[in-house]
Amino acid sequence: MDLTEGTFEEKHGRAKKMMLWFGIISLIMSFMGWTSAFIVSKSREDWLHDFQIPDAFWASTIVIVLSSVTLFLAKRALQASNRKMTTVWLLSTLVLGLAFITNQFLGFQEIIDLGYNFTGPTSNVTMSFIYLIAMVHILHVAAGLVCLLVVIYNHFKQKYTPGNMLGFELAAIFWHFVDLLWLYLFLFLYFVK
């Protein structure tokens, strides 16, 4: 299909999705840079090779996968014009997103309890990388939560229909991206020590 074909709304929708994908690609490049720096830094003498992923990071991984499932179910309910179930699944996604961030901070507390801080005399380069990578990801999940709140607001205003879901779709693409990004980061931190 030619990108110049279609109605104004169709072209507008394609342009917004393209801009979102450009943003996602730049985020992927940033996180690839940080994980590459993590790998390069492993040769340092002060690198921790035996650290364990905090238990709360395991829990947050389960929670974020569930949040993608609930958002998928919200989209299916919206496509079926089931407003009640769309609301249930959207609110479930919001709660799971908040639970993810809570678990991330519990994971940071586990790291601190082990005696490692982000900076200062009790810091370690390994843990500083983990803090940096996880905190930047948390910021993107927070941005996803803001998008989700906008979708919930618009849903209550009955803005979305099965034929008009652009805002919902944009938020869903971003949300699924940050979910997949965390899975990549979690597996990376688990296997690349």
Task: Give a written overview of the molecule.
The chain has helices spanning 8-41, 55-79, 83-113, 125-156, 166-191. With 193 residues, the chain is mostly helical. The model has no long low-confidence stretch (mean pLDDT 93). The chain has a single domain (8-191), classed as Cytochrome c oxidase, subunit III, four-helix bundle (Four Helix Bundle (Hemerythrin (Met), subunit A)). Helix 1 (8-41) runs parallel beside helix 5. Helices cover 77% and strands 0% of the residues.
**CATH first level:** Mainly Alpha
CATH homology superfamily: Cytochrome c oxidase, subunit III, four-helix bundle
CATH architecture: Up-down Bundle
CATH level-3 fold name: Four Helix Bundle (Hemerythrin (Met), subunit A)
Sheet with the most strands? none
**Overall mean pLDDT:** 93
Number of domains: 1
What best-fitting shape do the alpha-carbon axes yield? Answer: elongated
| Beta-strand percentage range | under 5%
Distance between the termini: 46 Å
Helix content: over 70%
What structural class is derived from the secondary structure elements?
A: mainly alpha
The radius of gyration over CA amounts to: 19 Å
The H/E string reads HHHHH
The count of DSSP E runs of length 2 or more, i.e. the number of strands, is 0
Total helices: the number is: 5
Q: Stretches where pLDDT falls below 50 for ≥5 residues? A: none
Could you name the key traits of this structure?
193 residues, 5 helices, mainly alpha, Four Helix Bundle (Hemerythrin (Met), subunit A), elongated
